[in-house]
Amino acid sequence: MPRVIVIGGGWAGCGAALAARKAGADVTILEKTDMLLGCGLVGGIIRNNGRFTAAEEAIALGAGELFQIADATARHRNVDFPGHRHATLYDVKKIEPRVRGFLLDMGIRINFKSRVVDVDIDGSIIKGVVLADDGVVEGDVFIETTGSSGPMGNCLKYGNGCSMCIQRCPAFGPRVSISKKAGVEDLVGKRSHDIYGAMSGSCKLNKETLGENIRRELEEKGVAVVKIPAEFIRREKLSMKVCQQYAFEEYAENIVLLDTGYAKLMTPFFPLEELRKIEGFENARYEDPYAAGRGNSIRYMSMAPRDDFMQVKGVDNLFCAGEKAGPFVGHTEAICTGLLAGHNSVRKCMGMDLLKLPGQLAIGDIITFVNEQIKTEEGLYKRFTFAGSVYFERMKQLGLYETRPETIEKKVFNLGLRGIFNENLVLKKENGMKCII
């Protein structure tokens, strides 16, 4: 049985582990903190705009369980807010134990507080990864889903300082680029010629600290929009943020709140002394990041060059997904890239041809398109998501945006891919066959 080691337990890592396990591998997740989901612990938005299409494609491909768990923990469905339609808002306070339990029931090992700091590599083949406590975890194939934010130095240099975000670098240690440790030079996203990375695009308020009318509107509708007094409008924040699908005037002129268990404030940061001068926010308190009155985390500082199979170039047995694989934005994007990386990691180990998802699917198209874009200087300034900005426009132009599940399922079936992520690849090979790298 091939041994697949997933480095990082965010949404991308969970997707990779799920697909690798379904394909018949022995799977271990190494997560540096004490919880899964990473940014998904404070995010909470799926199925908005083209993300609906991608989620239904993943379900039809045979590995939609993570989306179904998010659906099952939804606080609100079919929510419209500026620039976005039919969003599902899952409860960030409830989802992690559900995902953790599901993966454990699948037989996936999850090693928490296991920070990978180095690799044991022989030529172009990784033999094992080295943990911060000097332990070594051996495997046949490795998948890096460590994200692209942290360590603290990046937030200090390219942001407004450590924002004390959900990554919790001071407590659990900084992110380490495994691809770079394996000898591959990382790609770095840019905001301008001399400023690297992008700032996370939202922060979270404690709902109980908001005015009664705002709180009631959030509970009933899932969204609340409050006009910002002119003296507190900061349009420059739009160009700083990761989430370019929210970078238009409504988000500069209004406070846009979404109910994900917290009140998700759709701006990178908002000075608390200014926020509390706005009616309904007199007692507001931040839940994440704790320093969201000052700044937010810096991301896209560490992306690995890879192919359309999600394999890292230059290393024979290293795959990547999520933000590690390019300037993707969002949980849906992380899960979908993780699914392909996990599936192909087992194909690689079993000596099978790797799977490239076709451009007739939104998932396949975005993987190829982003890969083409980040090879250019201009592409390093862009962010890509099914939900908006550059890529959602492309989806619509190519006719890939679809909101009828039965139509999406039929397309996947006609492509000969229905349930492909649900196939046990190991059982297709003779018993006892060794991994071929």
Helicity range: 25-40%
Helical segment tally? Answer: 15
Radius of gyration: 21 Å
What shape does the CA trace take?
globular
Largest sheet: 5 strands, parallel
Average pLDDT reading: 93
Briefly note the structural class of the backbone: alpha+beta
Regions with pLDDT < 50 over 5+ consecutive residues? none
Strand content: 15-25%
Question: Short description, anyone?
Answer:
The protein has 437 residues and is of the alpha+beta class. It is built from 15 helices and 20 strands.
What would the keywords be for this entry?
15 helices; 20 strands; alpha+beta; five-stranded antiparallel beta sheet; five-stranded parallel beta sheet; 437 residues
Structure characterization notes:
This protein is of the alpha+beta class and 437 residues long. Helices cover 30% and strands 19% of the residues. It has helices spanning 11-22, 51-61, 65-72, 95-105, 152-158, 169-172, 178-181, 212-221, 237-240, 249-253, 272-275, 331-349, 362-373, 389-398, 405-414, and strands at 3-7, 26-30, 45-46, 74-81, 84-90, 109-111, 116-122, 125-131, 136-138, 141-144, 190-192, 195-196, 198-199, 203-205, 223-227, 254-259, 263-265, 286-288, 298-299, 318-320. Helix 2 packs parallel to helix 12. 53% of the residues are buried.
